[in-house]
């Protein structure tokens, strides 16, 4: 009779472990579910052309979600990424069309590589502003990035008085042609944006898993005070994650402007919501300290497939917003449940070993 409680504890621990495994695999389960559903509900959903188009859309969200993952892992949030996308797109468009007027009767024009580099530096600089506000002035991440969201969007609008920079084909005599390659070009049959995503994702995953900086990012999110006592340069780590987030947003701004061959100051509105949804759905904890780049990429696929599938089914954009909001809520609820279950399973396993 004395063995009954022990057996019950073992059985409960086993069930808890199975449920915990399912929770950890929730992103893959969700991905399979949406693929199966839309392949049945939407005609031509799994056609090669549609899959490539969806991959391009997923890539844009995945870039932002990777930057958001590092930010959230440290316990922060970046609401400014959508506005950075818009501003960086406008910077690229302005440079293609106008160059930089030195006000001395001379204008500098840049080739496409230089334009891309300058645009990326702008994104990194805005990310650095976020980092400085948070680390040096002790502004809460939500407030700091919300303020930068408005500043960046305002600068994007001011750069053209709210108008679009159209026809970014450039001029051969000025060396500004070729901008469309980023958004419309292909390598080995796949869009260039997909290859850029692969390179950035592999680099981010390697950084997170195998470098001291990656370990420090997770340490700051797990327990900032303990990380600081252990010698981690917490402020530098936070600066890096916001700069990386700005870098990723700049890539998206470049790709969208290149694909459309036009820059619009409203580009990127509400993109931050999709990025947060993809990161959280991919297993990144809003409490900080936990998340993976691989999980975030899968989460971006779920959000991207969900969005495109709903469009193909003719679902109203208003209902799409409702569904995405519910996805975020459910993802956070499941994450909290996973955290509590993990603690219970650990305690049961310790009791079993004892």
Automatic annotation (TrEMBL):
Give the residue spans that cross the bilayer: 27-46, 58-77, 83-100, 112-133, 179-208, 239-256, 317-334
Q: Does the keyword Acetylation apply?
A: no
Q: Which InterPro entries match?
A: ABC_transp_permease
Give the bilayer topology.
Multi-pass membrane protein
Q: Which UniProt keywords apply?
A: Cell inner membrane, Cell membrane, Membrane, Transmembrane, Transmembrane helix, Transport
Subcellular location as annotated: Cell membrane
What GO molecular function annotations does the UniProt record carry, in alphabetical order? transmembrane transporter activity
Name-wise, this protein is D-ribose transporter subunit membrane component of ABC superfamily
């Amino acid at each position: 009779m004395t063995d009954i409680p022990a057996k019950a504890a073992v059985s409960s621990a086993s069930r808890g472990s199975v449920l915990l495994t399912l929770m950890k695999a929730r992103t893959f389960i969700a991905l399979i579910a949406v693929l199966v559903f839309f392949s049945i509900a939407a005609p031509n959903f799994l056609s090669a052309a549609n899959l490539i188009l969806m991959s391009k859309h997923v890539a844009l969200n995945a870039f932002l979600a990777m930057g958001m993952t590092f930010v959230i892992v440290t316990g922060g949030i970046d609401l400014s990424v959508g506005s950075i996308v818009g501003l960086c797109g406008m910077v690229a468009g302005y440079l293609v069309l106008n160059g930089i007027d030195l006000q001395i009767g001379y204008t500098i024009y840049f080739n496409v590589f230089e334009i891309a580099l300058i645009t990326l530096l702008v994104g990194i600089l805005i990310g650095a502003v976020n980092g400085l506000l948070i680390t040096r002035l002790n502004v809460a991440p939500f407030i700091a990035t919300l303020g930068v969201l408005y500043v960046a969007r305002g600068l994007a609008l001011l750069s053209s008085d709210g108008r679009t920079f159209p026809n970014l084909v450039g001029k051969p005599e000025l060396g500004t042609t070729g901008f469309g390659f980023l958004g419309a070009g292909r390598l080995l049959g796949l869009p260039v944006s997909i290859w850029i995503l692969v390179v950035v994702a592999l680099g981010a995953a390697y950084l997170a898993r195998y470098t001291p900086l990656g370990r420090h990012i997770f340490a700051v999110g797990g327990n900032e005070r303990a990380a600081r006592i252990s010698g981690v340069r917490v402020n530098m780590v936070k600066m890096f994650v916001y700069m990386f987030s700005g870098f990723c947003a700049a890539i998206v701004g470049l790709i969208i402007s290149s694909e459309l061959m036009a820059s619009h100051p409203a580009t990127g509105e509400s993109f931050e919501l999709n990025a947060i949804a993809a990161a959280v759905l991919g297993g990144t904890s809003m409490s900080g300290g936990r998340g993976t780049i691989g999980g975030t990429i899968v989460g971006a696929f779920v959000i991207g497939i969900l969005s495109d599938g709903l469009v193909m089914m003719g679902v109203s954009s208003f209902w799409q917003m409702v569904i995405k909001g519910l996805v975020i809520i459910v993802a956070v609820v499941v994450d909290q449940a996973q955290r509590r279950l993990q603690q219970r399973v650990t305690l049961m396993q310790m009791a079993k070993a004892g």
